[in-house]
Design a protein that fits this description.
The protein is α+β, with helices and mostly antiparallel strands and about 250 residues long. The protein folds into two domains: about 10-155, 2,3-Dihydroxybiphenyl 1,2-Dioxygenase, domain 1 (Roll), CATH 3.10.180.10; about 175-245, 2,3-Dihydroxybiphenyl 1,2-Dioxygenase, domain 1 (Roll), CATH 3.10.180. It has helices at about 20-30, 70-80, 95-105, 180-190, 240-245, and strands spanning about 10-15, 35-40, 50-55, 60-65, 85-90, 110-115, 120-130, 135-140, 150-155, 175, 195-200, 210-215, 225-230. The termini are far apart.
């Protein structure tokens, strides 16, 4: 049996860069029943951003706002509006995951770094994927804190009622025309994923708009990434529309 060089336990978290993290966090607590579990910001010694960590069952979302005008976070929001920046993957060895993917053609975003506090140590490292999105490998086997070093445990200040969300099923990447196979190959070659299923424009189309999609999955099947590209329709594909707007 082929050895999985990149064992992934699941999605560690998804981080959104947003214009107003407090408001976004409030919305997800009240509308979707997420519970706040951690916070980082000026009150915890972080001066350039505020981050709210929300959780429901195995889903962990982070909403981050820049507190300064010229940061990478502020630029991301200025360019894209509120959007996902980090798709973080939970691994046993972040350093190994980083160097294995780098040796297979990944582009580095952040070299492996160790952070610690009273609750232990976390190792993280990040690589680039499509657009401005990154994958961060998170190793937390030696950590007992609420989220990551630099964050403090913080509960919701509003009543929350979970609506039954369990885990992240899949995360979709919308890419430019002709780029779908390129990114599928990236996930196959660089992260060792396998092609799970293919949909063409006959499968996903209306009279006016169409797309093509290939779904890649990791060894355990816990991580599924559909990669979509536009297809010809009577009007502009919704993928093209999304990319132009984004």
């Amino acid at each position: 049996m082929e050895q999985d060089f990149l064992p992934i336990h699941g999605t560690d978290h998804v981080e959104f860069y947003v214009g107003n993290a407090k408001q976004a966090a409030y919305y997800y607590q009240v509308a979707f029943g997420f519970e706040q579990v951690a916070y980082a910001g000026p009150e915890t010694g972080i001066r350039d951003r505020a981050s709210y960590v929300l959780q429901q069952d195995k889903i962990r979302l982070v909403f981050t706002t820049s507190l300064l005008p010229n940061t990478a976070i502020a630029e991301h929001v200025k360019r894209h509006g509120d959007g996902v920046k980090v798709l973080a993957l939970w691994v046993d060895d972040a350093e190994k995951a980083y160097y294995e993917t780098m040796s297979r053609g990944a582009t580095s975003h952040t070299a492996p770094a160790r952070k610690s506090d009273d609750f232990g140590e976390v190792v993280t490292a990040s690589i680039h994927t499509y657009g401005d999105t990154i994958h961060t490998f998170v190793e937390r086997k030696n950590y007992q804190g609420a989220f990551l070093p630099g964050f403090v445990a913080k509960a919701s200040s509003v009543p929350t009622t979970p609506i039954g969300l369990k885990y992240i099923d899949h995360c979709v990447g919308n890419v430019e025309l002709g780029k779908m196979d390129e990114w599928v190959k990236f996930y196959e070659d660089v992260l060792g994923f396998k092609l799970l299923v293919t949909f063409d424009d006959k499968d996903i189309s209306t009279e006016y708009t169409a797309l093509m999609s290939k779904v890649v999955s990791n060894g355990t099947g816990y991580i599924k990434f559909p990669i979509n590209e536009p297809a010809q329709g009577r009007k502009k594909s919704q993928i093209e529309e999304y990319l132009e707007f984004y």
